[in-house]
Design a protein that fits this description.
147 residues
Length: 147
């Protein structure tokens, strides 16, 4: 899933649960649950970081803008929303270090958690953008209902 969808899911969890000791671990776990859903991406062996970087930059920009908006709107829960958004989106940061492995579809030298993370993303494809857009709309709707 996109960083935007991971972050929005983290925010929704924070606003629904409102207890940091539960919300933060749930937000982290949500990252892996979302990645198990077929979503937008490049199939293994076709990934080229330089081409994909523009998409990542746009995604991170949208996520940052939405994060600022949500943190302003939900200022009473600022730290919980911020923390849950960060831990929900954070696990994808590891791919920066493994980008050469992704380009070669090579899992050697990758830590066990990242191997699991790679394995659960069993279906990434271009038309997965429709699933991403549906999830985005669902999270925006849910967040507006939690206000």
């Amino acid at each position: 899933m996109t960083a935007t969808n991971h972050a929005l899911t983290g925010a929704a969890i924070a606003l629904a649960v409102k207890r940091p000791e539960l919300a933060i671990p749930l937000a982290f776990a949500s990252h892996f649950a979302l990645d198990a859903i077929p979503h937008s991406g490049v199939p293994p062996g076709q990934f080229v970081f330089k081409k994909y970087f523009k998409i990542v930059a746009v995604d991170l920009t949208i996520a940052a803008i939405l994060a600022v908006a949500l943190l302003i709107i939900f200022k009473d829960h600022f730290w919980l929303v911020f923390s849950c958004m960060a831990v929900a989106a954070g696990p994808d940061g590891i791919w920066w270090f493994y980008r050469k492995n992704l380009e070669k579809n090579d899992k050697t030298g990758i830590d066990p958690i990242s191997r699991f993370h790679w394995w659960i993303q069993w279906k990434e494809f271009q038309k997965g953008i429709y699933i991403e857009l549906l999830w985005f709309g669902l999270m925006i709707f849910l967040i507006t209902q939690l206000k």
